[in-house]
Amino acid sequence: MTVFRKAVLALGVSISLSAALPSFAQDVAAKPEHHDHEYTRQEEMIPARDGVRLHVVILRPVGSEKSGPSLPFLIQRTPYGAEHATSERINMSKPELVASGYIFVLCDIRGRYKSEGTFVMNRPIVAHHSKQDVDETTDTRDTIDWLLKHVPNNSGKVGVFGVSYPGFLAMMAGIDAHPAVKAISPQAPMTNVWKGDDFFHNGAFRETYGFDYVQQLEAQKTDVPADSKEDQYNFFLEHGNFAGAAEAAKMSNLPTAKIFLTQPAYTKFWQDMAVESHLTKVEVPTLEVGGWWDQEDMWGTQAEYAALKPHDKKGEVFMVLGPWNHGGWGGPGKNLGAVDFGAPTGEDYRKTIEFPFFEKYLKGQSGFDLKGVASFRTGVNQWEHYDVWPPVSGFKGEKLYLGAEHALGFIAPTGDYNTVAGAYVADPADPIPFRARPVESTYGTGSRWRPWLVEDQRFVSERKDLANFTTPVLDHDVTVTGDIVADIFAATTGTDADWVVKLIDVSPDDAPAPMNGYQLMIVDEIFRGRYLKSFEHPEAIKPSEVNEYKWSLHGADHTFLKGHKIMVEVQSSWFPLYDRNPQTFVPNIMSAPAGAYKAQTMTIYGSPKYPSRLEFLSPN
Fold first, then answer.
1. Which of 30, 122, 126, 409 is the most buried (most CB within 10 A)?
2. Measured on CA atoms in the order 412, 418, 420, 423, is the torsion positive or negative?
3. Three-state SS for 115?
4. Burial zone of 370 (CB within 10 Å; 0-12 exposed, 13-18 middle, 19+ buried)
5. What is 395-619's CATH topology?
6. Domain Xaa-Pro dipeptidyl-peptidase C-terminal: where (predicted)?
7. Check: CATH 3.40.50.1820 for 18-203+265-386?
8. Rounded Cα–Cα distance for residues 56 and 228 (Å)
9. How far is CA 335 from each of CA 142, 342, 378, 617, rounded to the nearest angstrom?
10. Distance separating alpha carbons of residues 162 and 490, to the nearest angstrom
11. 43-78 pLDDT, tens per residue?
């Protein structure tokens, strides 16, 4: 999700302070192709079943309440402030939908901004035995029910959409759905914030992100972004662990900070919040949207699709995966950082997929012809279409092996059964930064957070505390598609370890600037070693014992071009986005004592017995 200042609110709403607007808000300010359409604005307080009143802003074409065709609703629920919704903003952000005519509704969720009640992060779904049993599904139903009865000249049809936290809320509209809901589009939704979305990835805590989230959403009822001028690398290193950082910021007693501090494992608390466990049937047509370089919620889009698709008897679960960061499809989408995709992919998506999707299901119009999945293949910069994801027809499994002397290739290792592919000493006192320093606050002034996943990795690739494996210069194109899986055989001299694997496209040195020699991450992910056997019950690792670690690096659809190289990089820290692993086992890393942080030797194997590799699909 973006859990803080999500600039990507689909109604063009700035979710936080204007000084902190991420690039989406700047992108949508570009001239729309359509002329402005005047919308009237009204605010209402809608009673939920338990008596709590929920604030909404309603925008509709001038005069449409009295004459003209009845209009469907397009609803977005948000923790980031409905008060920002204006006619000008929706004209900038959704020109096609605005021109067609909809009743746009933006809703403050319970406990945020002008809505009453108590805010609960990713409020879990509960059993509905009485009027006091409320969650986001009931608040959605109650809001829709009121709108249908009190907003004149509506068509009785509702679409719900949103990016990030609002993407999570859009999915809530598809669970125990109100009969009027005819289409939803969860975009970069928060789906499982422990396994792979905002707060943890495979057990590793996203320290800077969790820290800034608590400061922005729980220290007060409206958004106040964290904006420290200090290099966050220094701040978190000096405070040792998350407990120390939270105490320094006087936020240890805030609800989510307490959870971070006391429940770092995959406890019932996190399991109850997991959306995918509730996706046991398809209730309404669903369009999932995500980006290959989403810095916040890369996991949720594909996880929701994977959960829903087996139940998709009518062929009404769709997915779009494009070359975007978090919410980047809301802007032009021609570039991300230094990487050029050759065409305005965001505009293409909105005009040819999102707009006709809602037109079909809310107005009965033709033009939506997506049959399954639209995937933008980077490298060659072209859209591909598949029946399902990962694709099946026309693809075969491939393996890319890590070998001795930093070799990387498609031939399985032979020879010595104990061949070491690479080794390094990882020192918690000098962790590898996740992006070039200084590291700004996540949404602070001048922050480079949004495009960090496409940052040139040469800023770390020469460090001695990681291992690189590289192919020779490719003599033909190589395409990787689907879920990219790391299968790493490794050992540590300690009793705990983090493993970070990156798949990198290395451009030729003579490529046109700025891509000459550029090292572009295609997929990447971390795994915390203590969770090798169980996410619920962490255990110490036996020193020097070779273990097999297998985890997803996320999906991709990318072609490594002839003349490029493929690189795999393995490291054991990614700081301060992820907290430091002490590398000696402690019950709770959040409060690990200073003496637990020790340098350890990490060894990666590449032999017939221990064939470390990446697995993926490639076209036949």
1. 122
2. positive
3. coil
4. middle
5. Jelly Rolls (2.60.120)
6. 355-615
7. yes
8. 33
9. 41, 8, 12, 26
10. 41
11. 999 999 999 999 999 999 999 999 999 999 999 999
